[in-house]
Design brief:
There is one protein chain. With 150 residues, the protein is mainly α. It is built from nine helices and no strands. It has helices spanning 3-11, 13-24, 27-33, 38-46, 53-63, 67-72, 94-110, 117-131, 139-149. The chain starts with a helix and ends with a helix.
Length: 150
Amino acid sequence: MTDRRERQVTGGFALRLRQVIDAYGSANSIAKTIERSEGAVRKWLRGESEPNVTDLRTLCEQTQTSIEWLVTGRGRREVVHTPPPPSHNGPLSVTLLESITDAVESEINKDNLTLSSAKRSMLVATLYGMFQESQKIDPDAVARLVRLAR
């Protein structure tokens, strides 16, 4: 096993995913819930691949897991139920939204990626939700989610 993959399996995303799956039931039950194959989920657990952004969001919604915790290990594992999105409960932070958009574009350009506008929008919306409370962008989380969006 490569050093990077070993770190992922023993102390990173795969370990956190294992905790979520163990709390939820099994790899098979998670796979059925998010409409993915059990083989795909097992590859995520072995660190051989990672879920795309859509699968990540669905997984977190179904298990009430914080995306930030699952991706980075920071914060609480459980979703803290917050008020409705800013459009329904106060003004949108244009400064934060612009910063997130710039960070996403920078990562896309850095890696010469081509992402559809739908994927870009989903990335920005997900990141806005992650950073709305702190009003601070985590560049590592941005980079990781952009990679997952490919």
